# Entry
Amino acid sequence: MKDRGPDHPQGWDGKNAVRLLKLSAGRYAWRLAVGFLCLALVDILQLWIPRVMKHAVDGVSTGADTALLAARSAQIVGLALLIAVLRYFWRWFLLGFSRLVERDIRQDMVNHVLTLDRTALHGRTTGDILALSGNDLASVQLAAGMGLVAFVDAVFMSVAALAFMAALDGALTAIAVAPLPFLAVLTRTLSARLHRRFVQVQEKFSELTECARTTLASIRLFKAYNQEEAQTARFDALGRSYVHHNLRAAMVQGTLFPFAGLVGNASVVLVLYFGGRLVMEKTISPGDFVAFIAYLHLLTWPMMAFGWVANLFQRGLTSLNRIHDLLSDRPSLQDPSRPVPVPSPPLTLRLHECTFTYPGMERPVLRRCSITLEPGITGLVGPTGSGKSTLCQILTRLYPIPDGTYTVNGMDVNRLGVADLRSLIAYVPQDGVLFSDTIAANIAFGKPDAGEAEIVAAARATAIHEEILAMENGYETRIGEKGVRLSGGQRQRIALARALLLDRPILIIDDGLSAVDTETEQIILSHLAEYGRGKTCLIISHRIAQLLDAHRLLVMEDGRIVDAGSHRDLLERNAFYRTIHEHQTRTLCAR
# Structure
């Protein structure tokens, strides 16, 4: 998560946050217009009821009959029914607007996150993004819904009520509003403190969400290492910290909202005292006094609401700014202004003296690494940590590199569209990710419109077809999150089948058969040899046997390609290659 500090010295920009909300509001201007019209009519009708009460009370004072009281009562009932109908419609339009804003911003977030690359996402955890789309977005929805409604309602009602009160008695109105400046000063003073504390609350919620996600995703590991109690303690500590920061924010809220109510009640006391004297002096009529009290009652809600609205808006703006920060992130991999067409197969990939360092690290993983991959199968071996997986990610265009460093058929990849180049590559990473879906859907992930025959052919090529048929629902068997119902070898073969189904001119396998038994491995390798004809294939493995049929073998150490040649050549001159070959040969013989 990006660390901007509790005060957001360079991160907080309310204008950007409001601009983000305006983009959504512009799409539903008609809904807002109709909703606020209904809200305004409700307020006008509420303001009209005290006038009816005034005439009723004055009528009683002058000895009017019960027919007049019945007529006035019927007017109030009719106004109340009309208010109920209009309230239904303003809620449907305005609160519905807030839900539409929530949906649109969530969709924008998902769309935007899918455009970001690993460099752009380096400073964010999954829990942070989940918190933004959950707790933060809920705060935005509440501010854009009830917060906006309460604010507009409070402003309109305040102005209108003050106007009606002034029409009855200007001096008494001035007395009634005398405490309001104290509320304005307090609200302004506490708003900045509320913002700082809400930022801390949302950041703690992100940490809590990430801890929960990690716990669920790795629950088997926690059990295997008997770490349930330790993880429970960590989660409890984060939960206590989250509650602590919420209570600190509540302390500020607990000052603002009650004080707003105190100001409103102070106005009532002043009006009762001074207004009562005016009635006794017959300066105003009893009906005027009752109407004035009713208007003051209507004004009390806005005075109390301003504290509540300030709280909602502060939370909403804080969350909206955090969401804006995410939407402001830009991928470091950018398409050129005029991308050139991708070369036609067969393809030759060249990496020339590439040096690469992960964001936030000082030591480079690749050090002036040069490699040429021509059509055919190229095998790559190297010790753990030598940069093999990083090399695969560079070749797959998951990270940016300088101009002239990486070419395809002599064409600089920075002149090609990122998606265009990736459309040429089928990539099988070390951790072959599977989804909580059917086996067929997982194999067809990169080609959703693939037919059953294509899916079966890919499964046969990775020697898993028979195992799939033996499952309860065959290819429609759901495999659970991350393929939890499968063995490691089955997960790897399904991930490989997914890549083979794409039938792309470049295939990169990063140790994708490490969990497969030797017999099955040989079946798969024979299919790969046939599949790789005319294609550019790079297979990384720690098993020498997997690479014996490769057209060319490479050895990688300390971020560089240090040797290349045939199996026999490397046995003669490369100590690392010879050592692992002898070790694996002895292991096989021992079996």
The two ends are 49 Å apart (CA to CA). Residues 1-12 have pLDDT under 50 and may be disordered. Residues 81 and 541 are 77 Å apart (CA to CA).
